[in-house]
Amino acid sequence: MSRPHFHPFTALATLAAMLALGACASPLGPDGDGPYAPGTNPRAEAVDGLTVGHRLMQAGEHELALEAFTRAAADQGLTPDVISALGTANLGLGRLGQAETLLRRAIKAEGAVPEAWNNLGVVLMEKGDYAEASEVFRHAYALDNGQSDSIRDNLRLALAKIENRDYDDAEQQDYKLVRRGSSDYLIRQIP
Q: CATH number for the domain including 146?
């Protein structure tokens, strides 16, 4: 039986290839920037469920956002912000009845925020109740001291639909959900 021939150059090339692949497979570079998500740190403080839910809503992941908001409810209780967030996630999922119930509950709370009022208005617009939606948007706009372009745009849209019922037949409408903070959510009405 003959022995296979071993060439030192082949071994060196194989070793170099393995080292190169090993460097590519490293999950994180020295600055934590690699092709893979960073690992978890069980000792780190958890990110607030509302923050996670709002980020998921912004990404269009309404079901995951609802789960995050539900976890926030377990951690923080059913605060007006949590109830409003749950209602907004349900609206994103097309669950108008649940969204309306939750958002009406949120606006009844002391210190209800304009965002909850706006998002209730969006639910009412989706249901075709333009008159009540315009009143809700007016209230949201007043609470916000006219600072939100999204609320103003929604109010204009509601008033236009009251004046001309065929307004939404001509083009697809975009309703703007608002969250506390710097971002808006956009709900597109399907014709």
A: 1.25.40.10
3-class DSSP assignment, residue 168 = helix
Among residues 114, 164, 160, the alpha carbon closest in space to that of 134 is found at: 160
Q: Residue 51: what residue type?
A: T
Residue-wise pLDDT tens digits, 179-191: 555 445 555 444 4
Helix (H, G, I), strand (E, B) or coil at 175: strand
pLDDT in tens, 41-65: 778 777 788 999 999 999 999 999 9
Pairing of strands 174-178, 184-188: antiparallel
What total number of domains does the chain contain?
1
Which of 159, 105, 116 has the alpha carbon at shortest distance from 139? 116
Q: Give pTM, 2 decimals.
A: 0.67
- Which pLDDT score is estimated for 24? 54
Domain presence at residue 57: yes
Of 103, 158, 169, which is closest to residue 126 (Cα–Cα)? 158
**What ranges in 25-93 are assigned the alpha helix state H?**
49-58, 62-76, 80-92
Phi, psi (deg, nearest 5) at residue 177: -80, 150
Q: How far apart (Å, rounded) are the C-alpha atoms in residues 31 and 90?
A: 39
pLDDT band at 146 (very low <50, low <70, confident <90, very high): confident
The residues, any chain, with a CB within 8 Å of residue 156's CB and separated by 6 or more, are none
